[in-house]
Structure formats: structure tokens, C-alpha cells
DNA sequence: TGCTAATAGTTAGCTATGCTAACTATGCAG
DNA sequence: CTGCATAGTTAGCATAGCTAACTATTAGCA
């Protein structure tokens, strides 16, 4: 029987757990040799498909000039392609190259492997609790429009 | 009745939930006017007490030159004090000023308020699941030495 | 004791990443 | 066709990460 926890205490523990978990998985990314902002933008393009620079900037919560420069670096390193939209020549369409897709999949696999190592020492019940908690968080965040 | 989930799926969901949760709470920090690396270092000093620059760099997982510059900015803005250690004059001791403590407490309160808003829409059972999940993650991370 | 090695920080200089302001090019409304 | 709106880029600033090289201090030991 679990005693009643205060929401305040749960909020603090949740914050700490999420903070350290992200720090733990992000450590894997350095092996790819792609800096964090570029890697994050690349993941949006690889898993979300080709899109405009504005859309990409919005998805990553940065301003267009910041994303423009991140795309510069990704193009320079051959991870994405930048093309003018034929229907609106002001707009550019960013899409992943084969190399970009390959690197992103390697990155995802590394991060998942790292997380699976962590889950490896847990019981089925504990994993089920993590699964439910993840659902709850995602659902709450989706409901809180921002 | 929950069906059997694969660990792979849980790992992906957990990663996504933690990523978006951190993005959500971090958005509160901009109101403080203290950049992210400085705010994070300040929290270590405020909640962990006075310590050397090396200890601080280690806690934040950055190199000493990086932390030296972050401390420069915090000293410039009057949030921490930098003093020479009397017992080892090579070493410096970083401690929070009253202003640093005040700002950090305000930041923590903002983040917690934000998280509590999120937890506010949940049932007691759902919060209990989040509490257990947080415990499990923290325990696993502590057990995995790195 | 006095030389040598180790340790703690800083400085210099590079890259990356965030911003705003100001600009160019294109599209749209009338 | 004129004028405003929109998409992106350029320029310039601040922050934050790194390594290499430096200074100052301490510790080890022959």
C-alpha cells in the first residue's frame, strides 16, 4: 500500500528524474559528431518528412534566422537538401539526404539501446508503470495547448 | 487490463515524454533573465552549497574553462561570490549571494507551479503512477554508474 | 631541502547556437 | 500597378561548449 504523496513532492521527483534521464541519453549523441541543435533538427526532417524552414523553426521552437544557420550546417555536411518551393518561390523545402537518414537512424538506435540497458534491470511491473507514466505525461502535455 | 508492452516501445515513449516535459518546464526560465547554463550552475550552488570550480564543472558535466566563464557571468551579475580557498590557494570557492538565492528560489517556484498545473488535471492514481515511475528512473540511473 | 611533477584555474581562440534588426525576394489584394 | 504581407537571409551581438597553452600553487621524494 503506497501512502498518499503530495503533488508537490511528485512534481519535484518527476522533474529530477526527467532531467537526469535526458542527460543520460543525450550523452550518446556525441559519438555521432553532429552538434545537438543540428541533430534535433535533422530528426524532425527524417521522422517528420520534408518541410519548410518556418515549419522546422516552429517545431524546434527557435527563430527563423537560427534555423536558417542550422540548415546551412546540415547542407554543408550533406545531411539535408535545401530546395526552392516551386509553388511559392519565397519558401524553401528542407529534406533529408540518404546520409542524413542513415546518421539519424544510427543515433536513434544508440539512444534506444542506452534506454533499454536502463530498462533491462527492471521487472515487467516496473516497466508497465513507466509505460503508463509516459502515456499520462504525453496526454497531459497534449491537452495543455501551447 | 494492460496488454504486454515491448520494452522498445516503452523506451521510445519514455524518451518522448521526458523530452517534451523538460521543454515544457524550461520555457518558464526565460522570465528570470538568466541564461540556461548560468541558471543551472546557480541551482547547484544554491541547493548544493559552496564548492570549488572543479566540483561545479563536474556536477554540470562541462570542462573547467567553460565553468570558469559561466562563473564570470554570475559574479558580474552579483549572483555568486568567488573566493580563494585559504587551505589551498590554487582553488576557488563559489558561493551564492542573497540575490542569487532569491532568484533561484523564484525560478524553482515557477517551474514547480508549472508542473503542478500539469498534475492538476490528473487523478490520485495517475499521480501515484508518476511518483513510482520517477522513483524507478532515479533508482536505475543511480545504479548505473557512469 | 630543493627539484620535479601534479593539480586548480584562467586565457585565448575556435565552433555552435540563441536572439533582434534590417534587408531581399516573392506573392497577394485592391 | 502599387503597396503591404510573408519567407528567408545577412549582420552583429551574447552565451556556451571545446582544446591548447599558460600561471600559480601544492605535493612528492631523493
Describe this structure in words.
- The structure is a homodimer of 146-residue chains.
- Chain A is mainly alpha-helical and 146 residues long.
- Chain A has one domain: Arc Repressor Mutant, subunit A, CATH 1.10.10.
- In chain A, 66% of the residues lie in helices and 8% in strands.
- The first copy, chain A, contains six helices and three strands.
- In chain A, strands 1-3-2 form a three-stranded antiparallel beta sheet.
- In chain A, helix 2 (36-48) crosses helix 4 (64-76) and helix 3 crosses helix 4 (64-76).
- At the A-B interface, helix 1, helix 5 and helix 6 of A face helix 1, helix 5 and helix 6 of B.
- The structure holds a DNA duplex (30 and 30 nucleotides).
- What's the shape of chain A? globular
Oligomer: homodimer
Number of strands of chain A: 3
Under the CATH scheme, the architecture of chain A is Orthogonal Bundle
Structural class of chain A: mainly alpha
Order of H and E elements of chain A: HHEHHEEHH
Residue share in helices of chain A?
A: 55-70%
Unreliable spans of chain A are: none
The CATH superfamily of chain A is identified as Winged helix-like DNA-binding domain superfamily/Winged helix DNA-binding domain
Largest interface: A-B, 53 and 53 residues
Q: What is the terminal-to-terminal distance of chain A?
A: 37 Å
Give me the side-by-side strand order of the main sheet of chain A.
1-3-2
Could you tell me the CATH topology label of chain A: Arc Repressor Mutant, subunit A
> How many separate domains make up the residues of chain A?
1
What is the CATH top level name of chain A? Answer: Mainly Alpha
Q: Give a short account of the largest sheet of chain A.
A: 3 strands, antiparallel
In round numbers, the mean pLDDT of chain A is 93
Amino acid at each position: 500500500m503506497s501512502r498518499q504523496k503530495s503533488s508537490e513532492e511528485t512534481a519535484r521527483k518527476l522533474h529530477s528524474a526527467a532531467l537526469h534521464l535526458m542527460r543520460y541519453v543525450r550523452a550518446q549523441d556525441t559519438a555521432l559528431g553532429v552538434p545537438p541543435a543540428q541533430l534535433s533538427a535533422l530528426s524532425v526532417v527524417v521522422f517528420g518528412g520534408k518541410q519548410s524552414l518556418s515549419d522546422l523553426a516552429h517545431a524546434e521552437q527557435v527563430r527563423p534566422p537560427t534555423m536558417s544557420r542550422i540548415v546551412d550546417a546540415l547542407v554543408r555536411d550533406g545531411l539535408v537538401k535545401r530546395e526552392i518551393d516551386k509553388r511559392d518561390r519565397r519558401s524553401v523545402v528542407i529534406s533529408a539526404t540518404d546520409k542524413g537518414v542513415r546518421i539519424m537512424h544510427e543515433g536513434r538506435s544508440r539512444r534506444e539501446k542506452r534506454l533499454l540497458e536502463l530498462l533491462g534491470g527492471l521487472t515487467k511491473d516496473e516497466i508497465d508503470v513507466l509505460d503508463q507514466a509516459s502515456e499520462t505525461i504525453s496526454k497531459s502535455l497534449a491537452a495543455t495547448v501551447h
